[in-house]
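haha ok so turns out i had the wrong file open the whole time. this is the CORRECT one, sorry everyone. sequence first:
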Amino acid sequence: MADKSPQQTIQELKELVVAYFRQEAIDPLKQLGRYLGFGIAGGIMLALAVFAAAMALLRALQTETGDTFTNNWSWAPYAIVTLALAATAALFWRARRTRSVAR
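then structure:
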């Protein structure tokens, strides 16, 4: 086997460094981007679902309860929905904390 010239050695070193950088930096960043994309999309969908459920509960309380929440009690459906959202958030927060401790 013939000795390599310094230019060939430098070229091989450059190719090796570029391949290593691509393997160790670029490919994991692409995977991270995909992971973040699905996470952000899921978060947006969850936020829209919670918003729709809260609006459905509010409208149901306002229209299906007759005269219960009229005049001085017109604020009550908003308070009920706010408390329901706070309770749901507390349950999610507790479930997240319990799961992270179990790891």
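Residues 6-102 form one domain.
again sry for the mixup
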